[in-house]
Structures are given as structure tokens and as C-alpha cells.
Amino acid sequence: NVCPGIDAFPMELKEGRYRLSFWVKADRDDGGANFGLYGYDKSPWKDITANRDWHQETLDFEVPRDTQRTCWRITATRRGTLWVDALEVRPLP
User: Does this model's pTM top 0.90?
Assistant: First the structure.
């Protein structure tokens, strides 16, 4: 059983707080996905519901000291098509 998803090329983020944001929509009203980070202990994940309208999702996270690389991943959790656009990772003050 394959879970379709999108993985990012590893990012080299310094220790600190960041926000991951992107826009998402689905080809149906009951689309779903989860997204988050991996590459260090206690990396955050979030479940989302997507429908036919674009909406923005965000996830604030903190990169611990001595983290070499981290990646984000978005995985569809329901059948259908999921579109993702304008994904960015920015430092938080």
C-alpha cells in the first residue's frame, strides 16, 4: 500500500523557530493530508482537511541545536488529487 506524498530536498536550518506555510486544495470536498517535518526528535506533524477551495495551512516549529538537516513532507490521506502551492519556510522572530 503506497501513500503518495511530496518530500523536500533536505534543508540546513540553524537552531531557532520557523513557520512552514503553503496553500492547498483538493479535487473533492473531503480531501485530506498530513504534513510536517522530519530529521530530528519530536518533529511536528499536522492533519488537515482540504476541499475545492484554496486555503493556507501553517505549522510553527523549532529546530533544536545540532540538527544537521530537516525535511518537510506532505502525504495525502484520502483518495483524489491534492494541489500544493507557494510552500515556504521562514524564520520567526
Answer: no
| AA identity, residue 63 | V
Distance CA 93, CA 88 (A): 16
Q: How confident is the model at residue 59 (pLDDT cuts 50, 70, 90)?
A: very high
Residue owning grid cell 492533519: 47
Calculate the CA 93 to chain-centre distance.
20
Residue entry with cell 517535518: 37
Does residue 83 surpass a pLDDT of 70?
yes
Q: Return all residues near 42 (Cβ < 8 A) that are at least 6 apart.
A: none
Strands (E), the chain: 5-7, 16-26, 31-38, 45-50, 55-63, 71-76, 82-91
Strand-pair partners of 78: none
